[in-house]
Amino acid sequence: MLDSVAQGYGRSTVLEAVSLTLRPGVTALLGPNGAGKTTLLRTLATIKPPRNGRIYVDDIQVTGEKSARDVRDRIGYLPQDFGFDPRMTVADFVTYAAWLRGVPATAWPDRVAEALQLVDLTDRRRSKMRSLSGGMRQRAGIAWAIVGRPSLVLLDEPTVGLDPRQRLQFRKIVSELRDTVVVLSTHLIDDVGAICDRVIVLHQGSPKFDGTVADLEALGEEGLPGHSRLERAYMHLLPAEEQLL
Ligand SMILES: Nc1ncnc2c1ncn2[C@@H]1O[C@H](COP(=O)(O)OP(=O)(O)OP(=O)(O)O)[C@@H](O)[C@H]1O
């Protein structure tokens, strides 16, 4: 949960007093480039302490580095361009994440197997990371994020660069995480319609809409630019000057 969280870089303010309570299910963070989606995810991931306001993960307030360390094991954060050693095998990559999240060594084999099964990479567990396609890498990234059985999963633009089939595979995996709080940032409105229970539209650092996909669709009147109700609804939420193509 975020309570009046402010965030920024140097003199610029990116998030201004954002308050959000996240619930189990898939929440999309939608917004134009520079809206603050990554900043919000990094703040929730306790990577960048907020300038103001309070953050709670599983009701634990993050007040500094010590409490941040305590809650990080409960968070699975997958940055947009996550790094990896290309020589590592898929299983080693996910095992490394298990170690980072404080999973006891005795549980590594089972947890890694469980995570790889969910993302359908069991057959590729001995493959080198460098040999994977973009979609497989992204799935390995999701395994990396979930191997610690986090209660909060944060995925930053997880479908960028994936082909249509890979995006469908991704959606299937995310749908299986429904009992967890999943937040994903995206520009892809199709993904929002297909898998998200809740949508937050962020614009210039503040939520302009927070509701269900159906609520958002209801805003998509004819006459606005867009090929679907969701696209039109998204355009409707932008300031008038940004609605022009
Ligand atoms: N490390 C940084 N240092 C300074 N400014 C930054 C930094 N990271 C982001 N910003 C600025 O903060 C604002 C929000 O950026 P952020 O990356 O959170 O947006 P975003 O919604 O994720 O955008 P995108 O869709 O392009 O990924 C932008 O103006 C960006 O230039």
From TrEMBL:
<protein>
    <submittedName>
        <fullName>ATP-binding cassette domain-containing protein</fullName>
    </submittedName>
</protein>
<feature type="domain" description="ABC transporter">
    <location>
        <begin position="1"/>
        <end position="229"/>
    </location>
</feature>
<dbReference type="GO" id="GO:0005524">
    <property type="term" value="F:ATP binding"/>
</dbReference>
<dbReference type="InterPro" id="IPR003439">
    <property type="entry name" value="ABC_transporter-like_ATP-bd"/>
</dbReference>
<keyword id="KW-0067">ATP-binding</keyword>
<keyword id="KW-0547">Nucleotide-binding</keyword>
<dbReference type="Pfam" id="PF00005">
    <property type="entry name" value="ABC_tran"/>
</dbReference>
<dbReference type="InterPro" id="IPR027417">
    <property type="entry name" value="P-loop_NTPase"/>
</dbReference>
<keyword id="KW-0813">Transport</keyword>
<dbReference type="InterPro" id="IPR003593">
    <property type="entry name" value="AAA+_ATPase"/>
</dbReference>
<comment type="similarity">
    <text>Belongs to the ABC transporter superfamily.</text>
</comment>
<dbReference type="GO" id="GO:0016887">
    <property type="term" value="F:ATP hydrolysis activity"/>
</dbReference>
